[in-house]
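Input sequence (232 aa), recorded before submission:
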Amino acid sequence: MTPRLPGRIVASVATSSGPADSSGRETAQTLDRGLRLLTLLAESPNGLTMTEAADQLGVARAVVYRLAATLTAHGLAHRNRSGRLQLGMAVLQLARRAQPLIADAAMPALRQLAEKAGATAHLTIADGGEALALAVVEPSWTQFHVAYRTGSRHPLQRGAAGRAIIAGRQGEAACVRSAGELQPGAHGVAAPVLGVEGLDASVGVVALGPLDTDEIDPQVIAAAATIAAALT
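Predicted structure, token format:
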């Protein structure tokens, strides 16, 4: 699920036919290059020089200068003090606007997981070096359960949710478990959400006591797969 970029990104749309995508449909060449440049910048935390960007895109530097000027005008890119091109703050605004859409898509699977597991279910995403609880559903039938607020944050390296995200970056699909890492007495199980481009996320449950992993693990993995399918 990719939010639409605000404003006009194209500096000038080619009048001739653009490149064809994998389905054979024609695309606007300048828009295609602009989006590819954004992707390159997202994959380059230290930024790119104009020459590096031109080499990776396979275009002349003059083309990159035009693309960069347009992206900069919309806040999607900027030049740092050393002159390297980096992502702009407007990209963060787009990401924040996409978060409610992601949460809404995940809610049905989270509700089902919370009810079946009898534990608080959550969708957690990576936000820099932290794990951010994007959506939380508490079970309706239990007398006691963990209160876990939407918007809660903790280091990625702590807790099942964060470590599952790290595992997912390495292509691992198995569940990750934790006990008392974030809250004394709380036990968690989480699995990464795989196959959604640009999204580092996990789905998990947290309870006040030990969880039956033979029963819970398949439920968590199934919920992660359902949410991935809803987002692709």
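Checked by second reader. The longest strand covers residues 120-127.
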